[in-house]
Design a protein that fits this description.
alpha+beta, OB fold (Dihydrolipoamide Acetyltransferase, E2P), 60s Ribosomal Protein L30, Chain: A, 2 domains, five-stranded mixed β-sheet, 5 helices, 11 strands, 37% helix, rod-shaped
């Protein structure tokens, strides 16, 4: 004869055996997505023939405006279109009609039964959408938890995009700064003028002064500039004399610009007399020698400091 204890023991053993049988089925449903399995976005949507009537049940996996995507028990996805004529209601109970819902209540995670016809785009134009109240409550709970997380991810993505933009701008500014630093030793000729002298003379003629006045007027509005002054002679006379005379002519130009136009001496590069070594014309002719008896004045803008329009680069002379 069995006792109550034996009966309870057999019940526990039977329950334990049932649990062991069910566990593989339960855990078999919880699988991690494999690398070769398509995601909800990547999965192809089943096209519905135009005019074909269809009724099926599935879960809403995505919502976009007037359409939503539904996946049935065979893991086939369909695109469903909601119109003003779509009836959205909860399933009613015994002798009572189900509650009507606006189309905006179709949420992700909601299990629905959809009935309608296919359109020319392969979508199902829904005539009726039905669901259980309990499934609606579950979908609302799920959406309440998931939506803030997704919004936070989108906000963080926007912040990351902003940070990337700031970093790119900083890199561009750094590159521009490096370019300016590298260009500190480079100069461009902004203005230049050449004034000529009489034979064996370092005295400025009225015409030469007029050219220097025009040059000084342009320099008055310039920034980050320096002035290079180089004196020259023709081929007549001795070498030592020509070097000395060419330097005296350069000094005469600097003195005129500094005294008459108040150009600070710090703007002038150390003047140089080149003698007859850099002729620009034929020294065998009178006209050519007249052109060689000259002082060249150049206003140089520093590339690294000036934002003015750049002219032709000039190499620094020794």
């Amino acid at each position: 004869m069995r006792t109550n204890g034996d009966f309870r023991l057999h019940k526990l053993i039977a329950a334990f055996a049932l649990m062991l049988a069910v566990m593989p089925l339960v855990y078999g449903q919880i699988t991690t997505p494999q690398a070769n399995q398509p995601t909800a976005v990547e999965r192809n949507i089943q096209s519905i023939p135009n005019g074909a009537k269809l009724k099926f049940k599935g879960v809403v996996i995505a919502r976009d405006g007037e359409t939503f995507r539904i996946r049935d028990r065979n893991r086939t996805d369909y695109q469903v279109l909601i119109t003003d004529n779509t009836s959205v209601k909860a399933n009613g109970g015994f002798l009572r009609s189900g509650k009507k819902y606006p189309v905006t209540e179709i949420l992700r995670g909601l299990i629905v039964e959809v009935e309608g016809r296919g359109d020319s785009q392969g979508q199902l134009v829904a005539d009726k959408i039905r669901f259980d109240e309990s499934d609606m409550r579950a979908a609302i709970t799920s959406d309440t938890r998931v939506t803030p997380v997704e919004e936070n991810q989108q906000r963080m993505a926007g912040q990351m995009d902003e940070l990337y933009a700031v970093a790119a701008e900083a890199r561009n500014e750094a590159a521009a700064a490096n370019t300016r630093i590298n260009d500190l030793d480079e100069y461009d000729v902004q203005e230049n003028v050449a004034v000529t002298f009489r034979v064996n003379s370092a005295v400025l003629s009225p015409e030469a002064k007029q050219h220097l006045d025009e040059f000084a007027a342009k320099a008055a509005n310039a920034k980050a500039y320096s002035i290079e002054v180089s004196g020259h002679t023709d081929s007549t006379g001795g070498e030592a004399k020509n070097f000395r005379l060419s330097r005296e002519r350069a000094d005469a130009v600097i003195q005129y610009l500094a005294v008459n136009h108040k150009i600070p001496l710090r703007r002038f590069v150390t003047p140089m007399g080149y003698g007859k070594t850099e002729a620009v014309a034929d020294n065998t002719t009178v006209a050519g020698r007249a052109q060689n008896r000259r002082v060249e004045v150049k206003m140089l803008l520093n590339r690294g400091m000036s934002q003015s329009q750049r002219a032709t680069p000039v190499s620094n002379k020794p």
